[in-house]
């Protein structure tokens, strides 16, 4: 599990835009040339799937002697990189966030248009479209990078936008989102219990507490307490908590497909593996075949 850096620096998230437009047309930035148009080079084709918003494109690294070596094997050519050159490559992605919409796909252009306001970006940024609806967002400003990782939850069209630090050899086909920063609510919690220490204890029992929302901190909302918590989606989510002898229900905002049978995210109760009938074993099948039948 990739754990986001702890919240800090007094960064306050922007107002979340959860207004859903009537329809969103999902489209890719890459275009297919029509008849008569010149074919794009490989480098131009790569550039068509990324967008640079006030951020200079990375300069081409010039390897030093010994940085790149190669040899032929029976299986094919083997290219090897020196530790020094690999480190230089990785440094170009230091302030990059891996982004994915949780529970819904989002178009490339739509994401680009949302990020500026959603993350309250101060510097430039570059978006690269990957397979399986993953995106790389490279940020020019270090504070923007930290805000993107720790300033959530980020909600677009009532769905969470997950972000995690870039990692080498990232494979969109096999990568799984194992954590998400989400808002949790405790409906009915008495207003006098809106104490940071109490909410922090609840948050840390169901995940990693990050902060409370500002209206809750000022006890301006009498209906429920609300806190941002990093949840581990590979473990069952807690559905209830007891505070000072009283049990309360825990609600998870905008988190789709949470099963309250087993507590795991990714499916609902009707598709819970724990509730589905198990296939009979081979010995059980033979026993059933040998059993007498009853005519009704």
Automatic annotation (TrEMBL):
Biased composition regions of type Polar residues, renumbered to the chain:
25-37
The coiled-coil regions, if any, are none
* Keyword tags: Metal-binding, Zinc, Zinc-finger
**Pfam families per UniProt:** DUF4283, zf-CCHC_4
GO MF terms here are:
nucleic acid binding; zinc ion binding
| Region feature Disordered, mapped onto this chain | 1-37, 277-296
Q: Which residues form the CCHC-type domain?
A: 259-273
- Lineage, top-rank taxon, reads Eukaryota
Q: What is this protein called?
A: CCHC-type domain-containing protein
């Amino acid at each position: 599990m990739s754990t986001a850096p702890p919240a800090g620096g007094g960064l306050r998230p922007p107002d979340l835009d959860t207004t859903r437009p009537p329809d969103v047309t999902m489209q890719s930035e890459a275009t297919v040339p029509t008849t008569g148009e010149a074919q794009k080079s490989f480098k131009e084709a790569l550039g068509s799937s990324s967008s640079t918003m006030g951020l200079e494109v990375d300069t081409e690294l010039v390897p030093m002697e010994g940085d790149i070596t190669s040899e032929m094997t029976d299986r094919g050519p083997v290219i090897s990189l020196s530790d020094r050159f690999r480190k230089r490559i990785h440094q170009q992605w230091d302030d990059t966030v891996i982004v994915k919409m949780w529970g819904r796909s989002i178009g490339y252009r739509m994401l680009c248009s949302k990020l500026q306001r959603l993350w309250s970006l101060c510097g430039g940024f570059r978006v690269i479209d990957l397979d399986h609806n993953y995106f790389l967002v490279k940020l020019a400003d270090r504070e923007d990078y930290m805000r993107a990782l720790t300033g959530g939850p980020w909600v677009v069209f009532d769905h969470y936008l997950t972000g995690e630090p870039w990692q080498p050899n990232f494979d969109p086909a096999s990568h799984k989102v194992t954590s998400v920063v989400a808002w949790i609510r405790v409906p009915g919690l008495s207003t006098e219990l809106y104490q940071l220490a109490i909410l922090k204890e609840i948050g840390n029992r169901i995940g990693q507490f990050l902060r409370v929302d500002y209206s809750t901190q000022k006890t301006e909302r009498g209906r429920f307490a609300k806190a941002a918590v990093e949840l581990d989606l590979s473990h069952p989510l807690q559905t209830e908590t007891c505070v000072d002898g009283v049990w309360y229900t825990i609600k998870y905002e905008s988190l789709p497909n949470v099963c309250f049978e087993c507590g795991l995210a990714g499916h609902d109760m009707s598709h819970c593996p724990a509730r589905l009938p198990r296939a009979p074993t081979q010995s059980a099948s033979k026993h059933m075949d040998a059993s007498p039948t009853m005519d009704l």
